[in-house]
Amino acid sequence: MFQDLLHLFFPKKCVACEENLVHKEMICTSCLHQLPLANTHLNNENTLKKVFNHEVDIKKASCLLYYYKKGITQRLFHNLKYRGQEEISSYLAEWFTPYLEENNFMTGIDGIIPVPLHRSRLKERGYNQVEGFAKTLATNFNKVYIDDVLIKKEATKTQVFKNRLARQKIKPNYFSLEQESKIENKHILLCDDIVTTGATMKNCIQVLQVAKNVKISIASMAYAI
User: Fold this and answer.
1) Residue pLDDT, tens place only, 47-99
2) Closest to 80 measured CA to CA, from 127, 38, 113
3) CB-based contact 43:36 (threshold 8 Å)
4) From what superkingdom does this record's organism come (predicted)?
5) Nearest Cα to 51, choosing from 201, 203, 204?
6) Residue 90 neighbours by CB distance under 10 Å
7) Residue 67 and residue 55 in contact, taking contact as beta carbons nearer than 8 Å
8) Helices vs. strands in the chain: H and E counts, helices first
9) Which of 146, 206, 219, 225 has the fewest beta carbons closer than 10 A?
10) Under 8 Å between Cβ of 38 and 223
């Protein structure tokens, strides 16, 4: 009863369009139908994997959504990254879970690592927007969550709003590898929020592959096309 009264006076709002919700979900029915599902889980040689152009060795790749500027996905991720709506991260992982189950995508994965934030950005934002996504997938698939191996050494601006040439300019020393024995001989799933040109992911993968006999797959909330 208390929850019903609370909802009456302080209705939850859709995290995509900010309209009042009439149910307990985070995204309204209208927005759910508009969000562009990528369906990359159906084909491992998909557009997301091809963006890396064999520059790094990736075993599997999948994303939940396509990201379009000036659309519903831009509003959704803006709310996640800049308006404190951290819960979107876990929500998208819960939504993604049955798709990954559908083709046994997680089979063979030993641990899950989120693309890290630099400590100054983490202090400013208060959370890593990828953490909930990675942790929820780890919980749902009974995998080890690892956040102390891949470290962000320098702060960078978001890649999504840069032009394509600028996105490629990720210095190789932005990330470092710590306690590499934790991932030696393991198959790691690297998670990110939005993959653009893949520059950040490529850098992370190159750093992780310094570890002995490590295999890398990737999963992201969205891919910007």
Assistant:
1) 999 998 888 999 999 999 999 988 899 999 999 999 999 999 999 999 999 99
2) 127
3) no
4) Bacteria
5) 201
6) 18
7) no
8) 9, 7
9) 225
10) yes
